[in-house]
Design brief:
With 235 residues, the chain is an alpha/beta fold. The chain contains nine helices and seven strands, in the order ααβαβαβαβαβαααββ. Strands 3-2-1-4-5-7-6 form a seven-stranded mixed sheet, with helices on both faces. α4 links the parallel β2 and β3. α1 runs parallel beside α7 and α6 crosses α9. The model has no long low-confidence stretch (mean pLDDT 86).
């Protein structure tokens, strides 16, 4: 049973209850993996590219760790918001650009110590994006991906159920203070990133990685996420 799309009334009622709990103790499923990305970076990276930088949360986390942080996003509102946020930071460069455009510049080939993607891979063609990211990396550079996938197998659906049950528990740990509706009304409005349901399955990702990124490590994670880490061989 696909708990994300089921019409079963009991499952949907349980899902609505979990949503209410999550709203009261919210946590970012994407930001949750920033520590994993920071731990997985090569030592003292000089140049890092964040693909699909959104509002710049990961860019901000990367600044203390990298000499130069570049963020790209094809969405004009996201690129503008992040560029404005870091306009006084000389070690950050933000551009409205696709990964294909970035990789199409010969001057950028093999220039990055790390390329990161958080919740952006499923917006692109998987094989093309993996190949382009690989081309941008220096030998020994790291590709670090956090992505959403579509459940297809029984194992996928079982992990979805476990993620749904873990979600409120993680929220209680990360955000123990109860959030009330009045708290949300007081928050300034922020540009919303584009949303797309994933068509990519974990098996699709494994198949593409086996061909393009031999030795890549792919793991199911909490929060309905999957991570991929790969080190470009040094030839």
């Amino acid at each position: 049973m696909n708990i994300r799309a089921t019409s079963n009334p009991l499952v949907r009622a349980a899902g609505h209850w979990l949503e209410r709990v999550n709203d009261r103790h919210p946590w970012s499923h994407n930001d949750h993996f920033h520590p994993w990305i920071l731990r997985s970076l090569p030592a003292a990276p000089t140049r890092v590219l964040d693909v699909g930088c959104g509002r710049g949360e990961l860019v901000g986390a990367l600044i203390p760790r990298a000499g130069l942080v570049e963020g790209i996003d094809p969405d004009a509102a996201m690129a503008y918001a992040t560029a404005t946020r870091f306009r006084s930071e000389p070690r950050v460069h933000i551009a409205r650009r696709t990964l294909t455009e970035q990789a199409g510049d010969p001057a950028r080939a093999g220039q990055y110590d790390a390329v990161t993607m958080v919740a952006s891979l499923h917006h692109m063609d998987t094989a093309t994006a993996l190949a382009e990211a690989s081309a941008l990396l220096r030998p020994g550079g790291r590709l670090l991906i956090v992505t959403l996938t579509r459940p297809r197998t029984r194992a996928d659906h079982a992990w979805d159920v476990l993620s749904a049950l873990m979600n409120p528990l993680i929220g209680l740990v990360k955000h123990p203070r109860l959030v009330r509706p009045t708290d949300r009304q007081a928050e300034p409005a922020a540009a919303a990133p584009p949303v797309r349901d994933p068509q990519l399955t974990i098996d699709d990702l494994r198949e593409a990685a086996a061909e393009l990124l031999p030795g890549a490590r792919i793991r199911r994670r909490q929060g309905f996420r999957v991570t991929l880490s790969w080190r470009k061989p040094v030839t």
